[in-house]
Amino acid sequence: MLAAVPSLRAFAISLSGNVDRADDLVQETLLRAMANIDSFEPGTNMSAWLFTILRNLFRSEYRKRRHEVEDADGRHVDSLKSAPQQHSRLEFEEFRRALAKLLPHQREALILVGASGFSYQEAATVCDCAAGTIKSRVNRARARLSKLLTIDSADMFGQDHTTRAILTAGGRG
Asked: Could you tell me the CA-to-CA distances from 59 to 6, 26, 45, 56, 62 in Å, in that order?
């Protein structure tokens, strides 16, 4: 077994392209070979058996590692974080109940301007009233929602972009 180590190391370097990684592969190959020595058939080629173990080990680790992303500074992991959904659902339900408590014309104006992205003038055309009336309704609706939800700023509400838009977006025009 020990006579095959230099050849195993050379083969491992050619597979991995990294001397340290190759040494780890050779070490793991020898450990596996010793642990499974009873599966070696006497009279067969020991080097071939060891090379097969090393190749299979390398391929298994390669398949496992190709899905991994090197992230030494943790930036990639940070980009994958997401807020727990249960909080968003609770907040959304609370928001939905508060929205239902608004006067119908205030709710309509707020949804047209805040959620649907209409300008004040476009919302006024839809509601058949003046743009100033829409501005007033949206302002009153936002103030009432803030009071119902005890919100000091939109940052307190959570991660739901649609809800945040309703609370903060000003109409165009």
From this structure: 20, 14, 21, 5, 5
